[in-house]
Specification:
The protein is of the alpha+beta class and 775 residues long. The protein is built from 25 helices and 11 strands. It has helices at 6-16, 18-39, 52-64, 87-102, 135-152, 163-197, 200-224, 234-264, 270-296, 305-326, 328-349, 364-375, 377-392, 413-424, 443-459, 495-511, 527-561, 564-589, 595-598, 609-638, 643-671, 678-710, 720-746, 751-762, 771-774, and strands at residues 71-78, 107-110, 114-115, 121-128, 156-162, 400-401, 430-437, 473-475, 481-488, 521-526, 606-607. The chain crosses the membrane at residues 178-200, 207-228, 234-254, 284-303, 315-337, 542-561, 568-591, 597-621, 657-678, 684-710.
């Protein structure tokens, strides 16, 4: 035997010392979770989110102390919609709001009350200390005060809305959504695993490892947040990917161990079976995990704190899932195998028969699905590619948008208040802030230029009148920084809102402040500028990230299989599945026909983070299937099985595990479609669609058809497969000659039978095939 790989040596140690491996794993999980809890989570700050010109404007404004502060609006209205709040009751409520809010340390100022144009709503604006990012934390005392005021004035409807209230509501809703997603995912995973293994005990193994891997990763993520701050989405990604790949890797390893047990027929110990599985499945899991981690690392190139958080969570959970699969899983399999062996021995002692393990054979469904590729590979390949290209066509019309506040679910009370606020005060929809920095001696001319800018904006129909009670200009204490706020009555994700920003940046600013001589720094921020600049930033980074992904996918495939052809094929198939999934996403979410079906309000576009996220995660997960399926094909080919038969056998033998893994992944991803947050809906839908297409079209129709048409060229430039086939032919020829000579001496006329037996011995597992007919 040659030198064992690290994976095999680790599995062997784990198999020989199962209790040490199990206890060691539990200690590792406890240490990670305890260390993370002790260190705490380091959350991202406002500065970490700054991108583009809007980010530069926020930095200038913060330096001068004139930044946009988070504001809360307390709305007061009569219980009957037709009535107007007034009189002593309304005055008392306004005084109560003003007094109680001013007493809070989180509050910077409380503006005088403003009545809506129809007189039915009173609005009291409360400005908070600190940046927007802290608003969801600082708003809690304000919400408590509003609740007490509401109870003190039962004759009026009093509600609170604002950036902080909405952010807190979104966070609370996300937590409930994730709990709902887990409640759906776990039962489906249990059922799927029960169908695959037919054993309650075996079902518990993948879930146990997935859950403990997630727990360990959460602790590691808390530690990692002190290097790369967490944005709140990292934990979501750990749960999402952790359950998917944790079950996936364990499933593949378990399946291979059972195959080895069935093949051995009781002649090998559990330790030897686990070691045999580690040499194939263990290596595939490690290669697959590395591919996912390398692909996900491309997110760091996006230069965005949210993607940094997503990448960190994904890489950590995949790494931990791989470690659990190659360390503690062999120990668990040995203990379960020993239990099965003891039960079998007891049955034999009682004189009862022991049912042997049967090797899984592809069912009728899979044979039917593979039949087109086997019978007509060229036609199957052409039609399948055309179908996926047709699905991808809508992606050409994809419009990327930043999902602003208007897209959040109306199940959040603050969002219902937000709608009533905008109905009564439409000028509150969009706020642009123009920030100018110059020498203090030029403060007068800067203010004059900003007033001229304001006059131009007031004459532009895309802008609205000033919000009453808000100062026109705000200047820093050192008079070097001055800010002007302008309003527009349009939804934040609408074309009119974006156009108003374009008018401001491209026309009004250059015609006023832009004409000031000397060193004058100008920038515009606000919710719409932030979203617009973020989308532009993502569009600039997308080619870099995609190029890295393509290069790494190619390199990892070539490394795993020593084949340039497979590397190019893998890149092409990944692009095809991603493009078709994006086409379906645009078809469903960019229009409004599916709004009621999937419970969302269309942005008229796709969240700007979704395509980049899809490419990275899908490329990594597709490598799972690529490695699992092609490794079986290559393994057979290296044993001398002709490439055509190796392709059919490899795909058929891995069909059940690939299907099971796909069902688990699709369940996890599809559960996100039922969540309230639009961006999570889109991510869940596109990933579920991509995995379905990858598992049932790419791996069943396109991949086998392409490999059957390529034949031996699949393995170029490696000659290992060709040499393996040549060895089989030489062994068959030598065995045939020996059999023929023996038969000639005996004179019995049955030389062909002896040759057939030799061929079967040289061509294990395929005695019915004749090598000379295949080569």
């Amino acid at each position: 035997m040659g030198k064992r790989s690290v994976t095999v040596r680790v599995a062997r140690w784990s198999a020989l010392h199962p209790w040490r491996a199990v206890i060691g794993w539990l200690l590792f999980v406890a240490l990670c979770l305890g260390g993370g809890t002790a260190a705490g989570m380091n959350s991202a700050t406002t500065e970490d989110y700054r991108v583009g010109e809007a980010g530069r404007a926020e930095a200038l404004a913060a330096e001068g102390g004139v930044q946009l502060r988070p504001t809360e609006q307390v709305l007061i209205r009569a219980r009957t919609a037709s009535q107007r709040p007034g009189g002593a009751a309304a005055d008392a409520a306004v005084e109560d709001v003003t007094a109680r809010m001013r007493a809070l340390p989180e509050v910077a100022s409380v503006a005088p009350p403003v009545r809506s144009a129809d007189g039915r709503v009173l609005r009291v604006q409360v400005e908070l200390h600190g940046p927007d990012q802290d608003a969801k934390k600082n708003v809690v005392p304000l919400q408590d005060v509003t609740e007490r005021i509401r109870k003190a004035h039962p004759d009026l409807v009093i509600e609170e809305t604002g950036s902080g209230s909405v952010s807190k509501g979104v966070n609370d809703q996300r937590g409930k959504d994730l709990a709902f997603s887990e409640a759906i995912t776990l039962p489906v995973t249990l059922i799927t695993l029960a169908v695959v293994f037919g054993s309650v005990v075996m079902v518990g193994v993948p879930l146990l490892l997935a859950v403990t891997s997630i727990m360990a990763t959460m602790g590691l993520a808390m530690l990692a947040s002190h290097l790369l701050p967490d944005t709140g989405v990292g934990m979501n990604m750990i749960l999402l990917i952790g359950m998917a790949v944790g079950v996936d890797y364990t499933l593949f390893y378990l399946k291979r161990e059972r195959e080895e047990r069935a093949r051995a027929g009781g002649s090998l110990t559990s330790e030897a079976l686990v070691e045999a599985a580690a040499s194939t499945a263990g290596r595939a899991i490690v290669v697959s995990g590395l591919a996912v981690m390398v692909s996900t690392a491309a997110l760091y190139l996006a230069g965005d704190v949210i993607f940094d958080s997503l990448a960190t969570g994904t890489i950590l959970v995949v790494a931990v899932a791989v470690i659990s699969s190659v360390t503690v899983l062999p120990a668990l399999l040995v203990k379960l195998g020993g239990r099965a062996e003891r039960r079998a021995a007891k049955r034999l002692a009682r004189g009862k028969p022991v049912r042997p393990y049967a090797q899984d054979e592809p069912g009728r469904l899979w044979k039917a699905l593979l039949k087109p590729a086997r019978k007509r590979p060229a036609l199957t390949l052409g039609l399948s590619v055309l179908v996926l290209l047709g699905l991808a066509l809508p992606a050409l019309d994809m419009k990327l948008k930043d999902p602003a506040r208007d897209s959040f679910s109306r199940d959040i009370p603050a969002m219902r208040g937000y709608d009533r606020l905008l109905e009564a005060f439409p000028e509150q929809r969009v706020r642009h802030q123009v920030v100018v920095r110059a020498e203090a001696s030029r403060a007068g001319e800067v203010k004059e230029a900003l007033r001229a800018l304001d006059r131009r904006a007031q004459a532009d129909p895309l802008f609205s009148d000033h919000v009453p009670g808000r100062p026109l200009l705000r200047s820093s204490a050192d008079r070097r920084t001055t800010a002007l706020e302008l309003d527009a009555p349009h939804p934040t994700y609408s074309e009119k809102a974006v156009t108003s920003l374009a008018h401001l940046r491209d026309a009004h600013l250059p015609a006023t402040v832009g004409k000031l001589p000397g060193d004058v720094e100008t920038a515009v921020t606000g919710e719409v500028p932030r979203g617009t600049d973020y989308v532009e930033h993502q569009n600039r980074k997308l080619p870099l990230v995609l190029g890295f992904l393509l290069l790494m996918t190619f390199a990892m495939t070539v490394y795993a299989f020593r084949s340039v052809v497979l590397g190019l094929l893998g890149v092409g198939l990944n692009l095809l599945s991603a493009a078709s999934a994006l086409g379906l996403l645009v078809l469903v979410f960019q229009g409004d026909w599916a709004e009621e079906l999937l419970a969302f309000v269309s942005l008229g576009g796709i969240s700007s983070r979704v395509p980049l996220f899809l490419f990275v995660i899908l490329f990594g997960l597709s490598m799972d299937y690529q490695v699992f399926v092609v490794s079986r094909i290559r393994e057979a080919a290296l044993n001398g099985v002709p490439t055509r038969q190796a392709v059919l056998d490899g795909i058929a033998s891995s069909a059940k595990v690939v299907t099971s893994a796909a069902i688990v992944m699709v369940t996890v991803f599809a559960s996100f479609v039922m969540l309230h947050i639009l961006e999570m809906k889109q991510m869940g839908f596109v990933l579920a669609a991509a995995v379905l297409l990858d598992a049932f079209v790419i791996r069943v129709m396109i991949l086998p058809s392409a490999l059957l048409l390529l034949g031996r060229a699949t393995w170029w430039p490696s000659r290992a497969v060709r040499r393996a086939e040549e060895r089989v032919v030489r062994g068959y020829a030598a065995a045939g000659d020996a059999g023929g000579a023996g038969d000639a001496d005996a004179g019995d006329g049955h030389g062909s039978e002896g040759g057939g037996r030799a061929a079967g011995q040289a061509f294990p597992g395929h005695a019915e095939e004749r090598p000379q007919a295949r080569l």
